[in-house]
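cron nightly-structures :: item 1 of 1
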Amino acid sequence: MKTNRVLQTAGVVALAALALAGCASNESSSSQSASSEAVSGTIKGAGSSAQTAAQTAWIKDFQTANSGANVTYNPVGSGAGRSQFEQGSVNFAGSDAALSDDELNGTFQACKSGSKAIDLPVYISPIAVVYNLDGVKDLKLDAATIAGIFSGKITTWNAPEIKALNPNATLPSTTITPVHRSDNSGTTANFTDYLHQAAASTWTEASSGDWPASFGGSGAQGTSGVISTVKSGSGTIGYADESQVGDLSVAQIKVGSDFVKPTAKGAAALAETAKSVEGRDDNDLALSLNRTTTDSSEYPITLVSYLITCQTYNDSSVAKVVSAYAKYVASDAGQEAASKAAGSAPLSKSLAAKVTKVAESIK
């Protein structure tokens, strides 16, 4: 599993500077589109870098089943993807955070006048707290300590708060260098939502895709940037989609009375208990996660990542391809492809059925 993750990470880093294109992916595949009828046309997407490996797999298989279709995806980050979608320069966005109420009240250039954008959950994955500290391989952390580290209140690795959680570890006096995303990031929004929910007395900022400037730390562009910065430093710590951690050390997180590592199974268990965000239209499937869980089968630092599309497009031919693509992504074949490529957790049957129903209504 770890070796596969290292290979996946190398591929992700190599692709991160380029738009992901499927023009060379019309090769045989065991995964088929969920569409009963093949579609043709070109659509463009942009956004979440955490979705990179999954989008690569989805595009490859979708185009294999729909030889006349061409899908591209540029992993520029969730915030940039949402902005490009709002401006109409892409037909869909990938985002590790659902659209905010303010964003939903704005105008989406690709959407028909009077039509709103919608959030379709398609990718569930744990966020790992990664670190690079010589001699320490089994680090244990709780929410309050993580909040203290990333807010700049805990500054050395042998701080009392860390020693109390790791009594048998040889912790050096090395200065801690927290690494965060410098771009607007859905991964950051999920990570800070965990800190805000689970350690509110220490993490005084609300959840946000933009890192709080007052908390400092070292910023890096994209998921690959965080991984590279943590790996190249000493005493560094960061957060990233677990599919891309490679050979970095991963902290165990306290949940209830236990310490757990990030797993797809734990992420799926947390997502299963999620509630719908209040005040949304029926076709908007944005979810709210309970990150204060004490059930150790649920991993609290989980991201639910979305395809963001129009409910009704200005161009019906674009809508047909987007609808087919979203249906494929939510299908058993699409979820299996993402799981193999990125180690993500498949959508539950009930959630996948909801996404498919909404995808079918896109026009």
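cron nightly-structures :: done
Confidence is low (pLDDT under 50) at residues 1-35.
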